[in-house]
Amino acid sequence: MIFFEKNIFEKKMSEITQACSPNDINKEELGLNKPDNLNHQQRKINHQLNSNISISLLNLITSNKLKKNYKEILKKQKNMLFNLKKLPKISVGDFIYRIVYYSKIEDETLISGVIYLDRFCKKQKIVLTEYNIHRLLFISILIAIKFLEDKYFTNIFYSKICGIKTEILNKMEYQFVCGLNFEMYIEKDFFYKYQDLLFNSQE
Questions:
Q1: 67 to each of 108, 126, 147, how far by Cα in Å?
Q2: Which fold has domain 45-200?
Q3: Among 125, 133, 169, 194, which residue's beta carbon has the most beta carbons within 10 A?
């Protein structure tokens, strides 16, 4: 896990800001197709971590669905950019696997993405539902990729992974980092506690 010094942190913040500008707009509808540029070696996937994250998120959504005002929550959030009108056919677990498989990210990046997701929802008072989990999860991981990984692809590539138009993906990315108030730094102790929680959550 890389924890940046202040000057490197500011440089990364600048890169994220530039990456959020609405460039490279792809106006075609994109399905869950196989992205290009997959010639380099695939890393080993941590199925335990993927499964634990999936189960934890699904448990949270199930808990939210039991709230008395759940229907009101769905109505309130239905017009959000992160909300889907129809439930996606791909499960959360398979979606996480797809993200990790094609983007080739490290476990630390995936965990950081979940932390960003948690942080964003708390700041914006968003309730995770089966309608917004896919987009919110993907964009949180995408931000973690751009902030932590040494190399990453363009949003055109990532739009093929998540099945979202590049134009919409750019807008979601901008809204997400603004919603975080650009607070992407994660303290070491907090990260390791979160990591332990995810790895031990299903034991």
A1: 32, 14, 35
A2: Cyclin A; domain 1 (1.10.472)
A3: 169
170 Cβ partners below 8 Å, 6+ apart? 20, 21, 22, 23, 24, 25, 155
Please provide the average confidence, as pLDDT, over all residues in the chain. 78
Domain range annotation of the chain = 45-200
How long a stretch of residues is the chain? 203
Within 10 angstroms of residue 54's Cβ, the number of other Cβ atoms is 20
Mapped onto helix, strand or coil, the DSSP state of residue 85 is coil
Longest dimension (CA), the chain: 49
**What are 43-68's pLDDT values in tens digits?**
566 788 888 888 888 888 888 888 88
Q: What is the predicted pLDDT for the residue at 45?
A: 67
pTM: 0.77
